[in-house]
Amino acid sequence: MLFNWLRTKAMLLDWLQIEAMLLDWLRIEKPNMHVDDDDAFASTTAVAWPEPSHRRSWPLRLGSRPVTAALAGVPGSSPTHQPTAGAMTGIVQLLHIKPPYPPPNCHPAALRPFRPPKQLPWPTGSLVPAIITFGDSTVDVGNNDYVATIFKADYPPYGRDFANHKPTGRFCNGKLATDITAETLGFTTYAPAYLSPQASGKNLLIGANFASAGSGYDEKTAALSHAIPLSQQLEYYKEYQGKLAKVAGDSKAKSILKDALYIAGFGSSDFVQNYYVNPFINKLYTPDQYSSYLVGIFSNFVQELYGLGARKIGATSLPPLGCIPATITLFGFHQNGCVSRLNSDAQRFNNKLNAAASKLKKQLPGLKLVIFDIYKPLFDLVQSPSKSGFAEARKGCCGTGTIETTSLLCNPKSIGTCSNATQYVFWDSVHPSEAANQVLADALIVQGIDLIS
């Protein structure tokens, strides 16, 4: 009994320490977020921002509908942050941590030794110095605009709800989940697509995006659509390291790279655009065998990134592949309107991915590695869209919403494109809408707390 009492007391003290740290963040005045009709956020070219003409408070909460809608007077306008306190306040709100503080009968002096610094070390005021992204169309912010591939999103109606209502190369009507995550972490601009003209000078200080729509863990996946394969994305990253050192100096560059948040968003294209439609692969490997092959590549990728200085890595799981409108159209209706065997494949892959991550964390000292579960939040949206304020989850907004994606089918002349994408879980037949991305981003932040602590 004495042991149990001591253990309970220790747990309580740990919680009080955490509360004290959060309190010190929250004692700083909570900022207002603001938007500007002419905000340069859309182009990612600017580091300094013009004075805002509109101001709104930040009513961020877990599972909320698009934060943008509550913040902006103009649809798609992007908020900027007065960071530090604001970023931490948002995360506290996401975790549903509520006053009063401190607990009754707790002497405030006992909490003082655990007070964190009131200012973050990064000039941007963000919770990490930079975000560095690898992946496919779920995280591509425009690299494919500069690649000879059919997988492009540099034309309307893509980007119609983004800042300035212009396409940016994102496969969405507005922001990606990673864009929203960056905002929540306190960034006032997005890391540029590495192949874009904006990826130069001081813009490199906040990271870079190497993702390419149509890419995957499997090199053959990228080859099918002439996307940038994972191996080349890594080569670009090495090149980026050299450029960063020239801008920031060797010592500062190493610090940025060590403390940066690394995101990997691969896997969906490997299955949907390669394995399921490629008889040269699906006749040789079972889905389970192919999953093991991909997870092996993931492990090698993490080890290489670690060797290059990365210590905080987040990788996305597979979504419910059988609930994507395009796969439902191609492979038929099954349980709950989704293709059950595809969902089973995704779940088995995710289990292997989590097991590999656990092993890597034991092998690599100092590595923080999180697998972001996007399967459950997206599956919940598809199964019960009305609970989160959506009206349609079985088809996308663009065209008929059943097969359209990229310029071949989702284009300005697509018949039937919806007028209000916030009612749709999917923007086209493959990619979530900005509204759904907000829900996914909320989940990413909560799951990734360890990466920013």
Provide the fold topology:
Elements: H1 2-26, E1 33-35, E2 54-56, H2 67-71, H3 85-94, E3 131-135, H4 177-184, E4 207-209, H5 219-225, H6 230-248, H7 250-259, E5 261-265, H8 268-272, H9 279-282, H10 287-307, E6 312-316, H11 325-331, H12 340-363, E7 368-372, H13 375-383, E8 392-396, H14 406-409, E9 424-426, H15 434-447, H16 449-452
Parallel strand pairs: 3-4, 3-5, 5-6, 6-7, 8-9
Antiparallel strand pairs: 1-2
Helix pairs in contact: 4-15, 6-7, 10-12
- Note the overall shape: globular
Could you describe the largest sheet, including whether it forms a barrel?
A: 5 strands, parallel
Name of the CATH homologous superfamily? SGNH hydrolase
Task: Give the topology string: H per helix, E per strand.
Answer: HEEHHEHEHHHEHHHEHHEHEHEHH
**Count of DSSP-assigned helices:** 16
Question: Describe it for me?
Answer:
The chain is of the alpha/beta class. It is built from 16 helices and 9 strands. It has a 5-stranded parallel β-sheet with strand order 4-3-5-6-7, with helices on both faces. A two-stranded antiparallel ribbon has the order 1-2. Strands 8-9 form a two-stranded parallel ribbon. α14 (406-409) links the parallel β8 (392-396) and β9. α4 crosses α15 (434-447), α6 (230-248) crosses α7 and α10 packs parallel to α12. The model is unreliable at 1-86 and 95-120 (pLDDT under 50).
Question: How do you describe this structure in short?
Answer:
With 453 residues, the protein is of the alpha/beta class. It is built from 16 helices and 9 strands. The chain has helices at residues 2-26, 67-71, 85-94, 177-184, 219-225, 230-248, 250-259, 268-272, 279-282, 287-307, 325-331, 340-363, 375-383, 406-409, 434-447, 449-452, and strands spanning 33-35, 54-56, 131-135, 207-209, 261-265, 312-316, 368-372, 392-396, 424-426.
